[in-house]
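sorry for the late reply, my laptop died twice this morning and i had to redo everyting from scratch. anyway the thing you sent over, i finally got around to it. pasting the sequence first so we're on the same page, its 145 residues, then the predicted structure underneath. double check i copied it right bc i was rushing
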Amino acid sequence: MSHEFTDVHDCTCNNLRKAARAVTQYYDDALRPSGIRATQFSLLSAIKEFGTVSIGALAEESVMDRTTLTRNLKLLEDQGLITVTPGTDARVREVSLTPEAYEKLALAQRYWKRAQAHMAGKMGSDGVRHLLRSLAGAVEAARSS
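ok and here's the structure:
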């Protein structure tokens, strides 16, 4: 294994965080007309994929600690976009979308698609595919510690 990346400018964490901030700012701006932010769009989209999902499973899928996730879910609940209910096991809380969330997501999807097309246009399709593979590898590497 090579350990040639010893300069702080090569720090994986620092560079991922910088990229994440820049891309998040771009998507936040792109999604602004829909009334939701990139993080909210991602969470609502994940919940939509699951249908109904436990907070634990959503935290795992989102690679987000439960405290941060709960704070984000509270904002969505306050906006009337999700419901949080007890699961069949009293220790589990389940999250599902409200009808308003489906409408909000449909609107946001149009802006998200434009942002996606912009990123693909700037990075190229191969660049996007390579980035997504690399990011999945980074998640896996971090989780295997």
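The mean pLDDT is 93.
thats about all i looked at so far, will dig more tmrw
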